Amino acid sequence: MNNNTDHISYLFRDSFQNYRIEPSKELWHEITHSLSIKQFFEFGLNTFNIYYSAAILILSISSLGILSKLTNLRPVFKEQAQVLFLPDTNENETPDTNKAIVINEQPKKQEQAELYWNGKLYTGESIDKIYEQIEFEKRTKSETRQDDLTKSKSSLKTLFKHKKGNEKATVQKDVPPEKELIENIITETLNNELPFTDDNPELKAKEIEQKNKILEKQETEIKEQIITKHVVVYDTVRVVDTVRFIDTVKREVLFPKITKENLHWSIEAFASAAYTGHSFELNGAGGNDFLNKKEETLYPSTSTMYGMNINLGINNFFLQSGISYARLGERFKDEFNTNYIDSSFAFEYIESGGYWLLEPVDTVFFEWIGHTVVIYDKTWVQLYDSTEITVYDTTVTKTNFNEQNYYNYIELPLILGYELNRGKISYSIKTGLVTGFLMNTSGKTIANNNEMQIIDLDKNEIPFVKLNYSLMFGLGFNYRINNKLSILTETYYRKNLNSLFEPKYPVIQKLNTTGVKIGIRYNF
Amino acid sequence: MLSEKSIIKGCEKNDKRAQKLLYEKYAATLLGIAMRYAHSKDEAEDILQDAFCKILMKIKQYKGSGSFEGWMKRIIVNTAITNYKKNLKHYYHSDVSEISDSFVKQDQFGDHEFQMSELLNVINALPEGYKMVFNLYAIEGYKHREIAEMLGIEESTSKSQFSRARRLVQTELEKIAGTKKIFLKIENE
Question: What ipTM was assigned to the predicted interfaces of this complex?
Fold first, then answer.
């Protein structure tokens, strides 16, 4: 503070010291509006609100989704390039990108050998093991041939009759080219042989033996011709319409393409126990006493909810909607003193003076003076003026109210969530809007036109809004019992976006509920 | 009626009722201050709106030492200064170089009583820079060094501007007082 005491400064300082100008009526409304916007954008633990929570939740869901997609897709693209040149397509041919195989998850590789021999597909861990198996079969077959040499005539006949009819060996529709090649070789070999003659059994036996040798020789040659190959087997492959190159793949990550294969439906039933609190504020000017009385008499209480939801999963994201019955609780407590006044008549005494009352009590004669002296007893007599008055006897009767209020809603949620699966356990975060249709209310409250009067919490008496919107977010933890059934648990928080009452009601009341949900989910 | 302490506590908890009570208690006083820095009531209300939002958002920073009203007044003055700096380029800069700050004669209006609106008009008629310095020095009681820091000017500039502003104010007040004397004389005759 400066020490400026000149006349002009003093004049202004003195004049403006208690200068007041009443602001315009709407300024407070503008300040509260501006304040709510500024507080919304001011980040801090004290100002952390449900909107921030929801924004962070949505951001987290999006980030998780994008990150998980990005980390998955980079190796996928690498594998995808390999898959494009799988045996279905020759190297000289341009791959049909419309029918390419895309692997959506990191595939597990394992070496596996395949070999076609004698029209039969052998698979095994290595080509040596397949050879061992074939050798074993060949030995078995050879022994069988020797044993059945004499009795195999008819079967051989059948075989050659079959061949005589110039019918090729049956080729399965889906056999690979290698198998077809082997079949053709065997068929041609057999067709070049002369047919058996029934006349000379010994000759026939020799022929058979010779034929077997030829066959074995052919088989050996065939075996040499067969390309023993090592194939890579992927445990998860999926056919999609279009192969995408890196740039396109990145776009697909941000906006995952919805296909029938990555959509999954589920239905769930749940029950929930919750704790419901509330917040109050004045709706416009005035009504402070009513607001105070509301705040004094209403207390948080327990709530329950039951319902069913349908989930549409798109990869890890899911959309949820359904129907539920919410019984939101509130405790009303108040104490009323009722005075009963009873009147009766009585007298009121007012002192109005008095006098001395003299009573002779004795007489004494004094001889020496020759006089008789009378001795008096002196008493003051107080006089009262009596007035009849009315006496009121007041009896105070206390009435305690302790009522459970309920707001019953049918609710339709619209929720977006993200679920992470880890074996039998999955975690989910979700947020969304819950629209509540007010069904009925019960309990007690104070009358808005007389704070001393208790009235029923009746929607016909109080202007409730029919539709109430809440913003919710939750964290879920699910346990998969089997492929179809899961047990779900969830903690959630939700807050009313609008008041329970219409704008004409002097107080804005919003409920906020924190609860735990438990239920069961069926996956289609 | 809640005490000032209870109102402050309520505002710290973002209690709407307490905020409203605080507004009802101090808005008129704070608007009175803002009026001296603004050109119109609308502009003053804008300043008050900004300042009140700051007060409610920063109320936890009030440590309880010193007057709460004084703390709020400092906020509204600072908001007015911010508003002045923000609008500086839009203000009309009148040429006041001819005003001498070396000669300050004894004022001639004596004990004349001025109305608030007259005093406000006198302040509002001052060039922007002068008005700020005059308000801060003559009425708020800040020192020239503090004013120089607040406005981002030299201390000497603050001194000279106040001197010139004082001269202008004196002239204006004398005019008003003189005019009133003439009217009074005519009425008496």
Answer: 0.84
